[in-house]
Amino acid sequence: MSRPPKSGLVLRGRERLKQDFTRAASLRETYPQLAELCIEFEFEDGTVRGPSPQSFRYFPAARGFFRYSCPCHSCDGEFDLSDQVAELVGVGRVQRSRQLQVFCAGQRAQENNTREACPICARIRVSAILHSKEHST
Prior knowledge:
By secondary structure, the protein is of the alpha+beta class. About 25% of the residues lie in helices and about 35% in strands. It is built from four helices and eight strands. The protein is globular. The N and C termini lie far apart (about 60 Å).
């Protein structure tokens, strides 16, 4: 079975993500208390063989950019975890790990030039390790 080609909308969205990534500040600048951040995705799309899991590990020199394209190549959706990361890393937070489930809000391009809602659901785990008090002073 052939896959529909990526639409111009999908390509523009992914190009915008790349540009936004290059403009993002480092984690060291944005979250100086953060030693390490891990984001893990598992995807379901209602098929037997859904998209492969993805995992990302960030350290202080990495860019603080937490928007991810939908794993479906013909979908224009994205998962934005910026707010969840900010809340998790925020000063005074006791919780350092969070699990959430997010449905893709994007549209998939079809072979007949129509679009349909993307069925992908992402189970996401975000965990942070902060610098110890001795290290941050």
